[in-house]
Design a protein that fits this description.
The complex is a heterodimer of chains A (about 300) and B (about 450). Chain A is mainly alpha-helical and about 300 residues long. Chain A has 12 helices and 2 strands; from the N terminus they run αααααββααααααα. The chains are: A mainly alpha (about 300), B alpha/beta (about 450). The interface between A and B is large, with 42 and 71 residues.
Chain lengths: ~300, ~450
């Protein structure tokens, strides 16, 4: 009897890129901002991130058990969601809020719609918006950097508004390095930029969306009468543009589609900031464009090469 | 450089370790098993019987059909019988089994063909048994018999060899550049095509230099160097990148005024015109993780792959996967007795092969942005899973050329190109069904 050979369909070689490796790269890219959040807001920010990640992993595992799907916690996507979710909330957020946010992020937004790749909106974003709308009082005050005194909880003494709502804006350098109040991961634009550059080098994301998003936001902020540099460095714009508007499942796949998406995000961010009742517009802008993604995909379907005979 | 002509694709590790291995002639095995269909078109019927004495080059199979190519014996010996086997292309094909007498006698009737007209030329190409040696196996005489040859302005000679591992065509330039040039001239002379362009990827600098050196005095043949990116060797991609027209759906290159031929195919024409010896052996790259150094061999057609493996000193017990052809588009053989055919440009043997579980699609869009034809494999996969013929038609799945770029880049390791082929077959079947079985 001849030895049996392994038979598979072509191609017989594949790239080293895996879902897990992509998620690991995103986590690596988020690390500088995490370090800076500990510097600015103290060890409590680590506790927030840990609680958020733990809750996300639990709901991912739990929902997959309930829906009898294969458990995919090893792909690290829930960890990424957990970190970004925590980054979107201030360090003064009570820890019991995180499981609630994680439930809406993972169980509702992601798993109810079919798990990884099937969610219609960015899970972390939905988690944040639910908390923002339901527990506004709990997360309305943003601590100032270096206001932490003890290991845990010492920050509550001194809080203030985010630069977007503040009367006196911080200087540009302070905005860039993160020396101002805000959610725990969004303050340090420099650290987020560093992570973004890493993701571009690793080819996890293309610079198109972040650059166009931030550029459009600056342009429209200027048109609406704000200082464009201050407005792009304030609030969650860098976090949103680099880590949320580049999410795979909820953004268009083609280059023209990505361009439309990024322009839309930038425009709505500036519009909400200038005329909306909330000081921050990044989350709503991305969420709006997430929902528009299937439509954009439909209108930007690529024309095949050599489709019709001439 | 014209950037607008750069098409999408993937950058691969070339692994062309065999490019400096001079081709060795492999001795014919004791028995050869020659499939009667090694081409696109009608299978041949045997024209020998059990017990017949045959020589190297004796015709053993032919077909009255136009789209077909005759088959010749690669050894001298006795016809033992006939059997049906599964070829590397996964077709059940009738084969002639010939016992080699070891004398290597050529058929005494073989003589250089007398070519005075275009018809003579096409007849000669047919009787050579020549098919596209790049892998597709389209009968060459059919390609050159295009009805409206006056419209064809350019002959593109394909030396892209974009598959990893394979260096068979590159070696042809190293070892037989005069044959190539003579072959191109012969084709130009009898078809009336005014000019030829050898298209080569820029990862073959030595081969390019050899060609440039020999072509400097020949104005009708030029060399065009294109960037290295898989799948540059695909006909449509090659023609477009070299500055030619876009070949549309259902069109032959000739309909657009160009003809594409593989470089090894061209030089076989020259060889046949001079000697009258038909195509009975071919150059095969042998590579993989079990062979050091990788080799190039002249293998008699019909040699079982097991003999090739033994000749190269590969430990049969350690071989887990064998590919006939390249790593991107080659076919897995089911057992080692599968013979080498006219289209086998490589035999790749692996102990360690790619095997990783697939996971859900994360909609990263890599497959969509990498497809040279600009299809959307992720969309096609969903449409096929729902057996939605309408959506598949709208997604233009029929244009897929199975290059495998989508599967290669997929981080979830989904078999997208495989699904595309299933979807193509499904769409075809459902259209036939919709037309009342026509």
């Amino acid at each position: 009897m001849e030895r049996r050979m392994v038979v598979t369909s072509s191609p017989h070689i594949k790239s080293g890129v895996t879902t897990q490796r992509i998620m690991l790269d995103v986590l690596i890219a988020l690390t500088p901002a995490l370090v800076m959040s500990v510097v600015y807001f103290g060890p409590m920010s680590l506790a927030c991130v840990a609680t958020s990640v733990g809750s996300c992993l639990f709901f991912e595992w739990g929902a997959e058990k309930v829906f009898r799907r294969p458990v995919t916690v090893r792909d690290l996507s829930a960890v990424v969601t957990g970190v970004i979710l925590a980054f979107n909330l201030p360090v003064t957020t009570p820890l019991w809020i995180f499981p609630i946010a994680a439930f809406f992020a993972i169980a509702v937004t992601k798993q109810l719609f079919g798990g990884i790749g099937q969610n219609f909106a960015n899970p972390a974003l939905v988690g944040r918006i639910v908390i923002m709308l339901s527990f506004a009082a709990k997360i309305s005050s943003y601590p100032k950097p270096f206001a932490w005194t003890g290991w845990l909880g010492g920050v509550e003494a001194a809080t203030g508004a985010t630069p977007l709502a503040a009367e006196v804006k911080p200087g540009l350098l302070d905005l860039f390095i993160g020396n101002h109040g805000g959610a725990l991961g969004e303050v340090c634009a420099a650290a987020l930029l560093l992570g973004g550059i890493y993701l571009v080098i690793r080819r996890v994301i293309s610079p198109l969306v972040p650059v166009v998003f931030i550029g459009t936001a600056a342009l429209f902020s200027w048109i609406f009468g704000a200082d464009p540099l201050v407005s792009i460095l304030s609030g969650g714009l860098f976090l949103g543009a680099i880590f949320m508007a580049t999410d795979y499942a909820t953004t268009p796949s083609t280059w023209p589609g990505k361009l439309i998406f990024a322009v839309g995000c930038g425009f709505f961010t500036a519009l909400i900031r200038a005329f909306g009742s909330y000081p921050e517009g990044v989350s709503f802008a991305i969420l709006l464009m997430n929902i528009a993604t299937p439509l954009i995909d439909r209108f930007t379907r690529q024309k095949p090469f050599g489709g019709e005979a001439k | 450089m014209n950037f607008s002509r750069r098409m999408r694709g993937v950058e691969l590790d070339h692994a062309k370790g065999s490019r400096l291995s001079e081709t060795l002639a492999m001795p014919a095995p004791e028995t050869v098993v020659i499939p009667l269909k090694q081409h696109i078109g009608a299978p041949c019927e045997p024209c020998v019987a059990s017990g017949d004495k045959v020589f190297v080059g004796t015709k053993i199979g032919d077909s009255p059909a136009f789209v077909s190519a005759p088959i010749h014996s690669s050894v001298s010996g006795t016809v033992e019988g006939f059997s049906e086997i599964l070829t590397a292309q996964n077709e059940l094909v009738k084969c002639v089994r010939i016992r080699n007498d070891g004398l290597d006698e050529h058929d005494p009737s073989l003589a250089p063909p007398k070519v005075e007209t275009k018809e003579d030329f096409l007849r000669a190409v047919r009787s050579c048994g020549l098919v596209g040696l790049g892998g597709a196996g389209f009968p060459t005489h059919v390609k050159l018999a295009y009805k409206d040859m006056d419209r064809v302005k350019k002959l593109y000679v394909n030396l892209a060899e974009c598959e990893p591992y394979i260096t068979a065509d590159n070696r042809e330039v190293f070892e037989n550049v005069y044959g190539i040039i003579d072959g191109i001239k012969t084709v130009l002379k009898w078809t009336g095509i005014p000019e030829a362009v050898v298209v080569v990827e820029n990862n073959k600098p030595i081969g390019t230099q050899i060609l440039l050196l020999h072509l400097s005095q020949i104005p009708e043949i030029s060399v065009k160097v294109i960037g290295t990116k898989y799948p540059k060797g695909a006909e449509k991609v090659l023609v477009y990148e070299a500055g030619g027209p876009v070949i549309g759906r259902g069109q032959l290159p000739a309909d657009c005024g160009v003809i594409v031929m593989n470089i090894s195919t061209v030089s076989v024409i020259s060889h046949y015109m001079k000697t009258g010896k038909p195509l009975v052996k071919r150059r095969v790259t042998v590579d993989g993780d079990l062979i050091a150094p990788p080799m190039n061999l002249f293998v008699p057609i019909g040699t079982p792959i097991s003999n090739v493996i033994d000749f190269c000193g590969i430990d049969r017990e350690r071989v887990n996967m064998v590919l006939a052809g390249g790593a991107m588009m080659g076919q897995c053989v089911i057992d080692l007795s599968t013979p080498v055919t006219k289209t086998t440009n490589a035999v790749l043997c692996f102990e360690h092969y790619y095997d990783r579980d697939k996971s859900p699609c994360i909609h990263c869009g890599r497959c969509i942005r990498v497809c040279p034809i600009k299809l959307s494999p992720a969309v096609i996969e969903r449409a096929y899973d729902m057996r939605n013929a309408e959506a598949l038609k709208a997604a233009n799945v029929d244009l897929c050329m199975n290059c495998g770029c989508c599967s290669y880049v997929c981080p979830a390791k989904r078999d997208l190109s495989h699904k595309n082929q299933l979807a193509k077959a499904f769409l075809k079947a459902s259209q036939i069904h919709a037309n009342g079985g026509k």
